[in-house]
């Protein structure tokens, strides 16, 4: 079981509908224009198809569509990765208002239409009556063969992308050789000029500090000597004064305890002053007026400033600028190295063609098997002597999917040469070929629900019964829904849903109901003989239903 229920409100000509679905093979029948395919359209919209305001029933503010599925195990990791709640069921909802604005939800959480489509692809496959048209598109044909063979082209695509990047790099390098050489010469001259300075990180700050000290050396020496004289003079020096004051207070501290505190403060000040004296003496021992060193610093600072102005950078950024130029130079050297780029391009080309040849071999082996399977299905559908051929040939140009061109060829009758499917003239043949391909390839995917939308157009008689039995057979393992106008197909179904059109003063609406027993007999009789059933058509309908001998489908979970 997969699709459990579809609920519609104000969709095209459907006012309100809640349709329960079951496992096995279910047919939807009804008069032309009753709205059989509208249900399929609604389901596709719930699964992310393009929307517009035209789907809203006239006079209504919006349409609301819900599709409820069982939640297969293979979609649960996708739900978890996308941040949606994982339950035993899966509810996909879509609304479209009268202005065409769409909203979507998955299990009650807002979702995008792209997420609906991604999830829908894992739940449901739809085969339409014009499915043959997609079989004229190379990507669709190739995709069917690859799916049949279990081929993945992801590795080939990745290697193709790398090859294209390497080709582009090589081409650009060849076209830009002159420009690159000029750029390299400019960089080389700039690097050479700044390299002569050899600026180091933090050097500018240190040079600037040294220059300030040397340029003010005499003033600094005079200040240090003056301060030292003031502190150490025996008559007026600060140390002598502090010593005398400390001695006077210390001598009286036994009388007044407050003198002890003041004496301690003076002792601390005296110690700190002596520290200053020692530091000034040390400074004077190492300080020197060095005109030669000052000249050297003037020269180097001038060079720093000249280069900084030339390249419009603060002096302290010159080391970083030089490092960046050297990186750029290495990159240019690599770009100019055509030999290295040629080796890289040749290597990626070899890797791509190796992967592409492996894919081509797998396609070549699988093509006859797919051809035989679809040929058997065609012949079972009344095309005796018909032949299907999946042709694999070398493409004119390589591509991400490989080096092959895949074409589906068909011959509708014995002795005819197979031709491209798009050139087969008969509409009936196209429908049967499309059905044969649909039935054969429907078993490839993991989607638990298959929908066939009037793929049996253009067939009838015994072939129609074969179509019905094929779908019935598919329905024993997967859920199959088919929109059909053929009574032979409808008689083979496990379940039967009738769609009718009802007119009223308020407009036209579609009515959908499950039919069984005598109601089903009447519906199949209508399909056999028109709107007015006769005893003959009713008897024929009962005979068809009894002859089919519907085996019961698997029980709904």
Overview of the molecule:
- This protein is of the alpha/beta class.
- It has 2 domains: 3-129 and 418-548, Rossmann fold (3-Layer(aba) Sandwich), CATH 3.40.50.300; 178-336, no CATH class.
- It is 55% helix and 19% strand.
- It is built from 19 helices and 15 strands.
- The strands form 3 sheets. It has a 6-stranded antiparallel beta sheet, covered by helices on one side.
- 32% of the residues are buried.
CATH C-level class of the largest domain is Alpha Beta
The average pLDDT value, as a whole number, equals 83
User: Per CATH, what is the topology of the largest domain?
Assistant: Rossmann fold
- The number of helical segments is 19
The share of residues in helices is 40-55%
Outline: elongated
Beta content comes to 15-25%
Query: How many beta-strand runs?
Result: 15
- The CATH homologous superfamily of the largest domain: P-loop containing nucleotide triphosphate hydrolases
Straight-line distance between termini: 6 Å
How are strands sequenced across the largest beta sheet?
Answer: 2-1-4-5-6-7
Structural class: alpha/beta
* CATH architectural grouping of the largest domain: 3-Layer(aba) Sandwich
Q: Give Rg in angstroms.
A: 45 Å
Biggest beta sheet attributes:
6 strands, antiparallel
Low-confidence stretches: none
Number of domains: 2
Please write out the topology:
Layout: E1 3-11, E2 14-20, E3 25-30, H1 36-46, E4 62-70, H2 76-82, E5 89-97, E6 102-106, E7 109-111, H3 113-123, E8 124-128, H4 131-134, H5 138-149, H6 154-175, H7 177-197, H8 203-215, H9 217-232, H10 238-252, H11 257-286, H12 291-310, H13 318-336, H14 338-380, E9 387-399, E10 402-411, E11 419-420, H15 427-441, E12 449-453, H16 461-474, E13 479-483, H17 487-491, E14 495-504, E15 507-514, H18 518-529, H19 535-548
Parallel strand pairs: 3-13, 3-14, 8-12, 12-13
Antiparallel strand pairs: 1-2, 1-4, 4-5, 5-6, 6-7, 9-10, 10-11, 14-15
């Amino acid at each position: 079981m997969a699709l459990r229920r579809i609920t519609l409100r104000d969709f095209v000509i459907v006012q309100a509908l809640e349709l329960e679905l079951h496992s096995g093979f279910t047919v939807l029948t009804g008069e032309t224009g009753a709205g059989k395919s509208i249900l399929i359209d609604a389901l596709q919209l719930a699964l992310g198809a393009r929307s517009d305001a035209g789907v809203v029933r006239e006079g209504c503010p919006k349409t609301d569509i819900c599709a409820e599925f069982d939640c297969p195990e293979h979609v649960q990791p996708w739900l978890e990765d996308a941040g949606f709640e994982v339950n035993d069921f899966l509810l996909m909802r879509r609304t479209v208002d009268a202005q065409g604005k769409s909203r979507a939800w998955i299990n009650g959480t807002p979702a995008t239409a792209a997420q609906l489509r991604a999830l829908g692809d894992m739940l449901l496959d739809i085969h339409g009556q014009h499915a043959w048209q997609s079989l004229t598109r190379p990507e669709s044909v190739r995709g069917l063969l690859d799916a049949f063979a279990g081929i993945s082209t992801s590795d080939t695509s990745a290697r193709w992308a790398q090859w294209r990047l390497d080709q582009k790099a090589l081409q650009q390098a060849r076209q830009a050789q002159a420009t690159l050489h000029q750029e390299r010469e400019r960089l080389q001259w700039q690097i050479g000029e700044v390299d002569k300075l050899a600026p180091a990180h933090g050097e500018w700050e240190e040079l600037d500090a040294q220059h300030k000290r040397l340029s003010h050396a005499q003033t600094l020496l005079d200040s240090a000597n003056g301060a030292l004289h003031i502190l150490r003079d025996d008559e007026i020096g600060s140390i002598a004064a502090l010593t005398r004051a400390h001695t006077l207070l210390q001598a009286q501290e036994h009388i007044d305890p407050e003198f002890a505190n003041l004496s301690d403060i003076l002792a601390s000040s005296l110690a700190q002053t002596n520290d200053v004296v020692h530091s000034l003496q040390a400074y004077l021992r190492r300080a020197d007026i060095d005109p030669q060193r000052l000249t050297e610093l003037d020269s180097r600072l001038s060079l720093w400033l000249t280069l900084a102005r030339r390249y419009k950078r603060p002096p302290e950024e010159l080391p970083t600028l030089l490092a960046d130029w050297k990186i750029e130079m290495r990159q240019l050297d690599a770009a100019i190295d055509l030999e290295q780029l040629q080796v890289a391009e040749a290597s990626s080309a070899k890797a791509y063609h190796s992967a592409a040849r492996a894919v081509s071999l797998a396609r070549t082996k699988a093509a006859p098997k797919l051809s035989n399977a679809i040929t058997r299905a065609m012949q079972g559908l009344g095309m005796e002597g018909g032949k299907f051929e999946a042709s694999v040939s070398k493409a004119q140009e390589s591509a991400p999917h490989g080096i092959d061109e895949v074409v589906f060829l068909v011959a509708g009758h014995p002795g005819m040469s197979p031709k491209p499917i798009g050139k087969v003239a008969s509409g009936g043949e196209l429908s049967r070929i499309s059905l044969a391909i649909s039935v054969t390839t429907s078993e490839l995917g993991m989607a638990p629900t298959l929908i066939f939308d009037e793929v049996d157009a253009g067939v009838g008689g015994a072939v129609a019964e074969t179509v019905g039995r094929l779908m019935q057979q598919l329905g024993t393992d997967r859920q199959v829904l088919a929109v059909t106008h053929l009574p032979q197909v409808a008689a083979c179904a496990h379940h039967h849903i009738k769609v009718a059109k009802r007119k009223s003063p308020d407009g036209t609406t579609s009515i959908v109901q499950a039919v069984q027993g005598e109601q089903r007999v009447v519906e199949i009789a209508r399909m056999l003989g028109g709107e007015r059933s006769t005893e003959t058509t009713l008897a024929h309908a009962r005979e068809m239903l009894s002859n089919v001998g519907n085996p019961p489908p698997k029980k709904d979970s």
